[in-house]
Amino acid sequence: MKRVFVTGAPGSKWSSVVKNIYFSASVDRSDHTDHRTYQGSLHLGSYFDPGMEFGRFFHRLPEFDLYDCETEFDAPFSGTGVRIIKSHVFANHIDFLKQTWPDTPIVLVYRSTDACLGWWVRCGGFDITYPDYREYYKDLPTMGRLIEEQNKGIDTAWHRYSGTEPKNNVELAGALGLDCPPLDHVQNYQSNDIKVKVI
Fold first, then answer.
1. Nearest 10 degrees: Cα torsion 6, 7, 13, 17
2. Helix (H, G, I), strand (E, B), or coil: what is residue 84?
3. Do 110 and 154 contact (CB within 8 A), yes or no?
4. What are residue 4's DSSP bridge partners?
5. What is the pLDDT of residues 44-71, one digit of tens each?
6. Number of helical H runs and strand E runs in the chain
7. CA-to-CA distance for 170 and 175, rounded, in angstroms?
8. What is the spatial distance between Cα 151 and Cα 80, in angstroms, rounded to a whole number?
């Protein structure tokens, strides 16, 4: 396995889900730089979305060929191991991802739209320095609408595709075939108000 796709709406706490498997010895962390970090370690590594450093065309992902997509997936990386490709707008293209890269697992992270929007604002909203939400998400009404759209895509895929629902980051690493994360990275999804599924 070369990649893992991860999607969740802004405020879904998907960054914490990624962070708590990111330090597995199996993961390529070469995308991590100082400028790709927010609030110490709340956001780590590359994010792929329109208006951000990578994935600027991902809202139109099915319009691009496999070479262009994979070149973009790999752009921030230079190391070895499994590359975690995280994009909010993957939520709108899950069927395309499944059909085009059938052997690549997709991690779905879900919280209610109200919980997502509230948490995203609490974490900094449009003052978040990385990644930059201002260009594509524009303002709070647009952000609320896009969170709702992304959650709808995730919910549809959740019920359409079989998979596994890990209870914590250790089970998630196991479901993805990754080495267990270090013991100082422990996350229980229920107590964090997060639902996670691997499809």
1. -10
2. strand
3. yes
4. 84
5. 899 999 999 999 999 999 999 999 999 9
6. 7, 6
7. 9
8. 32
